[in-house]
Amino acid sequence: MTPAMSVVDLRCRYGSSEALRDISFEVHVGDYLGIVGPNGSGKSTLIRAVLGLVPVEQGSIELFGTNLPAFRTWRRIGYLPQRLKYADPHFPGTVDEIVRLGLLAGKKFPKMSSRADDEAVARTMEFMGISGIRRQPVGELSGGQQQRVLLARALVGGPDLLILDEPATALDPETRGNFYSLLSDLNRKQHTTIILVTHDTWSIGQYATRFLYLDKKVVFDGTFGAFCQSGEMTEFFGEYAQHQICHRHHGEKRGADGTR
């Protein structure tokens, strides 16, 4: 099966500063991939390169078997950016209007709404639990509600791949947990392929099915079980941090040789 995404030998720079080097990995259809790493590790640069927002010095990126850039391929992506744009309480857009923005990329001029658009918006807002606030100005909502609105905007066009860049940074712990659970439901029940970028290595193991640890290069790429049992990763992170990241070792103890 053609991967949803294939990155080969990717290298990016900002001026004379190397942001990414020799990055290679694949995302398969149905994956829930967490991309984690410290600040300055190149996580957001990688996503911006995939979206065509930063130049690629070397290497290639394919989405669904098509080399980028390719407008029709980008239309298959739903994207939730890092920062909230609608936190200003005076921002005039309503929930309904913001969600509808997610349908514009697939339209030719003149960009007119159709009955099918109305149905897609209603269906998505119902799924996200925001139908009751559809007429409310988005700037008046809580951070968690705003993130649900932005996620609905990313989902309304029925993307094959959902990319989220630090989506829970501004959320309190309870709201963040609910948001991550919602993403897990999207992956399991809607079969949406997800790439989640986060610095939160302490909780990603509860939600994603595999992860990539990035620090300008690929430090690890694989399942949480493989990570948890890796002696190399024990040396890199230390045993306590290693198990906090994998989050799948509770009630188990490792022997001196790394076995359980």
Short précis:
With 260 residues, this protein is of the alpha/beta class. The protein contains nine helices and ten strands.
Written description of the protein model:
The protein contains nine helices and ten strands. The chain is of the alpha/beta class. A six-stranded mixed sheet has the order 6-7-8-3-9-10, with helices on both faces. α8 crosses α9. The C terminus is likely disordered.
Summarize the topology:
Layout: E1 5-14, E2 17-27, E3 32-36, H1 43-50, E4 58-63, E5 66-67, H2 71-74, E6 77-80, H3 95-100, H4 115-128, H5 143-155, E7 161-165, H6 173-189, E8 193-198, E9 210-214, E10 218-223, H7 224-228, H8 231-237, H9 239-246
Parallel strand pairs: 3-8, 3-9, 6-7, 7-8
Antiparallel strand pairs: 1-2, 1-4, 4-5, 9-10
Helix pairs in contact: 4-5, 8-9
